């Protein structure tokens, strides 16, 4: 298998052009074009976007943001955690391990991870070791988050009503 390298994407017009391919092929809710356009500062290295290139083509991407522990409503003990969203692999490159490589990269920070999967993607997330979070109507606001727990971290117990 080829060596897959996850890279932090630069926020620039070249990346914006590459994101257009995802919008064409992907789900509208996965489009990161608006976020990228709103954050364009030539080659900002603090981008929340990560991707995998095949040759010169961006073929897989995700957004990965750190949430500070004071806002943690999911994990015990409360701690910084990652929100992984908008993971997408272009159709011609699916089944080659790119999605797994992105998730493994996120796990390498050894922080708990929360994601909100698209319909029909639960099987992928379960294979990656994610589990359904206990649903809290006030916290989750209609989302059905999945979480990944590193060793020593538990899901926060919901207060019984």
Automatic annotation (TrEMBL):
Any keyword Acyltransferase? Answer: yes
Q: Extract the coiled-coil ranges from the record.
A: none
Secretion signal, residue range per the UniProt entry: none
The record ties this protein, via PROSITE patterns, to: GNAT
Q: Mind telling me which InterPro entries this protein's record contains?
A: Acyl_CoA_acyltransferase, GNAT_dom, YlbP
Alphabetical list of Gene3D superfamilies matching this protein: 3.40.630.30
Cross-referenced Pfam families: Acetyltransf_1
The question of whether Glycosyltransferase is a record keyword is answered with: no
Keyword entries, A-Z: Acyltransferase, Transferase
Annotated N-acetyltransferase domain ranges read 9-152
Looking up SUPFAM superfamilies in the UniProt record yields:
Acyl-CoA N-acyltransferases (Nat) (SSF55729)
List GO molecular-function terms, semicolon-separated: acyltransferase activity, transferring groups other than amino-acyl groups
Superkingdom to which the source organism belongs: Bacteria
Q: What class of enzyme is it?
A: transferase
EC number annotated for this UniProt entry: 2.3.1.-
Name of the protein in question: Uncharacterized N-acetyltransferase D8M06_00870
Q: What is the lineage of its organism?
A: Bacteria, Bacillati, Bacillota, Bacilli, Bacillales
């Amino acid at each position: 298998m080829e060596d897959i390298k996850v890279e932090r994407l630069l926020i620039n017009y070249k990346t914006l052009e590459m994101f257009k391919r995802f919008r064409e092929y992907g789900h509208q809710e996965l489009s990161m074009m608006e976020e990228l356009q709103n954050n364009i500062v030539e080659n900002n290295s603090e981008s929340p976007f990560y991707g995998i290139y095949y040759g010169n083509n961006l073929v897989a991407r995700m957004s990965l943001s750190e949430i500070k522990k004071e806002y943690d409503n999911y994990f015990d003990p409360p701690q910084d955690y990652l929100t992984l969203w908008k993971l997408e692999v272009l159709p011609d490159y699916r089944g080659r391990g790119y999605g797994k490589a992105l998730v493994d990269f996120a796990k390498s920070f050894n922080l708990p991870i929360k994601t909100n999967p698209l319909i029909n993607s639960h099987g992928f997330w379960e294979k990656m070791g994610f589990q359904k979070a206990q649903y809290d109507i006030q916290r989750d606001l209609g989302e059905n988050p999945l979480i990944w727990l590193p060793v020593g971290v538990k899901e926060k117990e919901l207060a019984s009503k």
